[in-house]
Amino acid sequence: MKIAIEGCCHGHLDEIYGSLKLLEERENCKIDLLLICGDFQAVRNPADMRSMSVPVKYQRLGSFWKYYSGKAKAPYLTIFIGGNHEASNHLWELYHGGWVCENIYYLGHAGVVNYKGVRIGGVSGIFKHGDYGRGHYERYPYSPSDLRSAYHVRDYDVRKLLQVRKPVDVFLSHDWPRGIEHCGDLDELLRFKGFLSDDIQSKSLGSPANTSLLKKLQPNYWFSAHLHVKYSAVVDHSASKNDLIRGDGNATTGVTKFLSLDKCLPKRQFLQVIDVPTPESSSQDFSYDLEWLAITRALHPYLSLNREANSLPTDEEIQR
Predict the structure, then answer these.
(1) What is the phi/psi pair of residue 198, to 5°?
(2) pLDDT tens by residue, 98-116
(3) Radius of gyration of the chain from Cα atoms?
(4) Element holding 130 (H helix, E strand)
(5) Residue 284: how many CB atoms within 10 A of its CB?
(6) Helix axes 155-162, 208-217, angle to 10 degrees
(7) Residue 319: is its pLDDT beyond 80?
(8) d(CA 262, CA 141)
(9) What does each C-alpha distance from 60 to 1, 85, 178, 201, 204 come to in angstroms?
(10) For residue 3, what are the contacts with CB-CB under 8 A and spacing of at least 6?
(11) I need a labelling partner for 305 at 20 to 30 A (CA). Which of 79, 97, 141, 281 fits?
């Protein structure tokens, strides 16, 4: 199965789908699925832009409204996560995930689904320490502060993902797992993004929550965006339980292949197509994940809609 991955969308669905059509014609291939790693901007109308943390000069309606209204249909099944520039009022309506329009599915603040036997998980938003332990208290109309905190990852959603026991094939996040930069060509990264050096030296680049998920879930592939650069890395899970260690790119087991992509602009590296084997026994296309539904049901009583988060049970108590 050919899966296309896109970095930051920023509302440029027409351009992304057009690029994939050109690729299919040039390579004589068929794309089965598109994954988008955040900043999707599911803006339905001008009013939605008031719920998006974007400077006024960069606010654009984009092309999503065409697909939402039915004027156009997504030519590929598209699955996306949220980033830090989203119409939060819209995506909050689909906190657990759902169809934003025909053929385009939002994974929710956290989620796992299946497509042709390939298990796909993801977490939306970016990490900020001050909001990580809070509940989901933000409501429309958002204050300037709530407009930003609404897309900050919460411990509750990460803890749900940490309960997943069955193997995950592909995982999506907007910001990077903390420490992943040391598992690729760091010198090359700094040639393109030299301003990251201070964050790298202070060990503050990326999300520690994503690192915990990476070490626990150990997916075959992990895709991210946010930093607007193409960067690949390989994590060897057998080398250390505590740190992310650079692995062999030719290895087929025991490693996670990481790839971050740029935003959708001319002459930017914002698309990548990979071949992912599908189980011969798989007869379904898109389907909800039974384990994830069970986890969501078990932890739903602890979901806080207030500023203060509810105390969560231990992992052992959840698994009972």
Answers:
(1) -65, -45
(2) 999 999 999 999 999 999 9
(3) 19
(4) helix 129-132
(5) 9
(6) 10
(7) no
(8) 31
(9) 34, 12, 31, 36, 31
(10) 31, 32, 33, 34, 35, 118, 170, 273, 274, 275, 276
(11) 79
Task: Give the separation between CA 62 and CA 11, rounded to whole angstroms.
Answer: 5
First to last CA, the chain: 36
Given the structure tokens 């509810």, which residue do they identify?
A: 310
Number of neighbouring beta carbons within 10 Å of residue 315: 10
Complete DSSP assignment for 236-268: ETTT-SSS--B--TT--SSEEEEEE--BS-TT-
- Can you tell me the distance from the alpha carbon of 212 to that of 232, in angstroms, rounded to the nearest whole number? 19
| Cα 154 from Cα 126, distance rounded (Å) | 9
Mean pLDDT, the chain, integer: 96
pLDDT at 283 over 90: no
Look up residue 165 and give its amino acid: R
Contact 283, 143 (CB under 8 A): no
Angstrom distance (rounded) from CA 35 to CA 13: 12
